[in-house]
Design a protein that fits this description.
The chain is α+β, with helices and mostly antiparallel strands and 107 residues long. It contains 4 helices and 5 strands. The termini are close together.
């Protein structure tokens, strides 16, 4: 099992398959991420067919506790969060994962 996938890994993988200049691939990947981030920041959902959907959801305000001062209540304000729902093909691929090997690599 390998570590986390980074933006650099994505650029190199695309470069290996296309042989486009790494600089162009890096700029294209960054532009793609910028467009996704901009849409999410505007409250829009991002749907990528066969991959999944990034949904902007609202978390209600709630009362929390500071573990160092449990007698003091802390108000956690309403905020927007991003949830990811895997698409059909990604879900099918996830079912093929060897869970025992994945759990062992996370320790």
């Amino acid at each position: 099992m390998q570590g986390n996938l980074t933006k650099r890994d994505i650029v190199l993988k695309i470069y290996d398959k296309t042989k486009f200049a790494q600089k162009e691939v890096r700029e294209t990947v960054q532009l793609t991420l910028d467009v996704i981030a901009e849409a999410l920041a505007q409250g829009r959902n991002v749907e990528l067919r066969n991959f999944g959907v990034f949904e902007v959801q609202i978390r209600k305000s709630r009362v929390g506790r500071n573990p160092h001062k449990p007698e003091t209540d802390v108000i956690i304000p309403t905020r927007a969060v991003i949830k990811f729902k895997a698409g059909k093909e990604l879900k099918a691929d996830l079912k093929k994962i060897n869970l025992d090997a994945l759990a062992a690599s996370k320790k």
